[in-house]
Amino acid sequence: MSELLADGMLAGLDEIAGTGRDARRGGYSRHVWQAAELELRAWFVERAGRIGLDVETDRNGNIWAWWGTPGPDAVVTGSHLDSVPGGGAYDGPLGVVSALDAIARLQAAGFTPSRPCAILVFAEEEGSRFGIACLGSRLMTGALGADRARALVDADGVTLAEAAVRAGLDPAHLGTDREALERIGLFVELHVEQGRGLIDLGQPVAVASSILAHGRWRLTVTGQGNHAGATLMADRRDPMVAAARAVLAVQDAASARPGTRATVGRMNIVPGGTNVIASSVQAWLDARAETDEETRALLGEITALVDEAVAENGCSVAVVEESWAGSVHFDPELRDRFSAALGGVPALPTGAGHDAGVLAASVPSAMLFVRNPTGISHSPEEFATADDCVAGVEALEKLLRTLL
Ligand code: GLV
Ligand code: MN
Ligand code: MN
Predict the structure, then answer these.
(1) Is 113 helix (H, G, I), strand (E, B) or coil?
(2) Which of 374, 387, 392 is nearest to 8 (CA)?
(3) Partners of 218 in beta bridges
(4) What DSSP string runs through 148-212?
(5) Chain mean pLDDT for the chain
(6) Hey, is 316 helix, strand or coil?
(7) DSSP string for residues in 356-375
(8) How would you classify residue 343: left for phi > 0, otherwise alpha for psi between -120 and 50, otherwise beta?
(9) Which of 103, 119, 239, 312 could potentially form a cystine with 221 if both were Cys, beta carbons 3.0 to 4.6 Å apart?
(10) What percent of the chain has pLDDT over 90?
(11) Residue 1: is its pLDDT beyond 60?
(12) Closest C-alpha residue for ligand 1 atom 1
C-alpha cells in the first residue's frame, strides 16, 4: 500500500505539488492551456507513458491514455487537472492520479483487461479561464456548440480559438466528437468530496447519487462614472453600491429557499480607481438547486430583487446566462452495483458540477467520492488523508477489476 505514497500523499500528487502554486491567492491556479496546466499535461503524458499507456489528445483538448487498444465499449476513468483560482490540490488531480495508480496496480497484479480501458483528462473543467465549466466534456457531447466556444474570451482578451491554436489544436475541429464519445462504454470519475457527507458518516469512500442543477449568469450593473471628491452623495449613480445591494439580494433569495445556493464570487469594477466612482460593475452569479425548475425560480427571484436594488440606486442591470447544467441523477443501477461491489459504501448527492455529470446524459456514468476531512473545497484547505486516498485508489481498482 505504501508504494502509492510519498510525503504523506499519493506519490502522483506529490510529483505535481510544486506546479501552479499561486503565491498571491494561496493554493493553486492551473488554468487551461496556460503554463501550469500545460506542465501538468506534460507530466500526465510522461506518467501515463511510464506505465505503458498510449496517449492522444482529442479535437477538444481532452487527453486520453489507453491501456491496450483503443476501442468501443471502453471503461474510462479520469477527471481534470485544471483548478479554480487559488484552488486546492485534490479537486481534479486526485481522480487523475488515482486512475494512474489503479491501473498500475492492476498491471502489477498481472491483470489483463478483456475490454478497452482509458484514462481521460478533461480540459477546463472549472471554467476558470473561459467561464464555462466542464468545457471539454460539453464540447465532446455537443452540450456546448463549437462556435460559441471559439468566441469565448479570457480575462486578457484571448479567444478560446486563439488559445487553442497556441496549445496546438485546430479550432476548426472543436466540437461534438461522436467518435470519442462512442468509445466510452462506461465512465467513472473519482473525486475528492466537496462537503461533509463522508465526515458525518465516518466513512472514507462513497458513490455519487446526484448533482444539483446549476448555472452561471453575468450581471452588468451600469451607473455613472464620476469624481469621488467632487460628486455629492445625493448626486451619485454608483454601480458599486447597487452591486453591493444586489449581492445582499442574492443572499436573501437563496437563504429563503431551503437547499438552494447562490454565490457572487467574482466582480470586475470598471474602471477600478480609489478616487473614481465606478461607471459599471460586472458580477458573476452562481446559482444551484435540487431541480431545474427550482433553480430557474431562484434565478427569477434573484433577478427581481436585483432589478429593484439596482433601480433604487439610479443604475441599470443586464443579466446574461453564461452556462446552464440541469440536475443529474446518476444511473441508479450502476450506482447500486458499484456500492455493492465496494461492500455497501453510501451514496451521496453533491452540489458540485463534474464532467461525469455532463457525460451522464450520453453514456453510463458514475462517481466515487473520497472523504475530505475539512469539508472545504475550492480553497487551499481542501484535503484528503493519505489513508483515504489509498482507500479511493483501492475502490477504483476494485471497480476496474470487475468491469474489465
Ligand atoms: C465545479 O467544481 C463546480 O461545481 O463549479
Ligand atoms: Mn471544482
Ligand atoms: Mn472537480
Answers:
(1) coil
(2) 387
(3) 284, 320
(4) HHHH-B-TTS-BHHHHHHHTT--GGG-S--HHHHHHEEEEEEEEE-SSSHHHHHT-SEEEEEEE-
(5) 98
(6) strand
(7) HHHHTTTS-EEEEEE--TT-
(8) left
(9) 239
(10) 99
(11) no
(12) 353
pLDDT of residue 2: 67
Q: What is the dihedral of CA 49, 54, 60, 61, to 10 degrees?
A: 10
C-alpha cell at 160: 478560446
Ligand 1 proximity of 211 Cβ (cutoff 6 Å): no
Q: What are phi and psi of 253, to 5 degrees?
A: -65, -45
The H or E element spanning position 268 is: strand 261-270
pLDDT digits (tens, 9 = 90+) for 171-211: 999 999 999 999 999 999 999 999 999 999 999 999 999 99
Quick check: 148 pLDDT over 60? yes
Q: Is the CB of 126 under 6 A from ligand 1?
A: yes
Task: Estimate the crossing angle of helix 386-403 against helix 332-341, to 10 degrees.
Answer: 110
The minimum-distance atom of ligand 1 relative to the CA of 91 is: 2
Find residue 194's DSSP bridge partners. Answer: none
Residue located via cell numbers 474510462: 76
Sign of CA dihedral 185, 97, 9, 133: negative
Which residue has 438552494 as its cell numbers?
260
Residues 341-368 as b or e (16 or more Cβ within 10 Å = b): bbeebbbbbbbbbbbbbbbbebbebbbb
The amino acid that residue 123 corresponds to is A
Rounded to the nearest angstrom, the distance between the alpha carbon of 312 and the centre of ligand 2 is 36
From the CB of 367, is ligand 1 less than 6 Å away?
A: no
**Which of the ligands is closest to the CA of residue 79?**
3
Q: From 203, 251, 243, select the one nearest 222 (Cα to Cα).
A: 243
Residue 79, strand partner residues: 121
Binned at pLDDT 50, 70 and 90, residue 71 comes out as confident
Single out the residue of 402, 404, 388 nearest to residue 190, CA to CA: 388
Report the C-alpha gap between 92 and 206 in whole angstroms: 17
Whole-number Å distance, alpha carbon 6 to ligand 2 midpoint, is 24
At 3, the pLDDT band (50, 70, 90 cuts) reads confident
Spatial distance between the Cα atoms of 100 and 15, rounded to a whole number of angstroms: 13
C-beta separation of 81 from 41 below 8 A: yes
Q: pLDDT-based confidence at 21, cuts 50/70/90?
A: very high
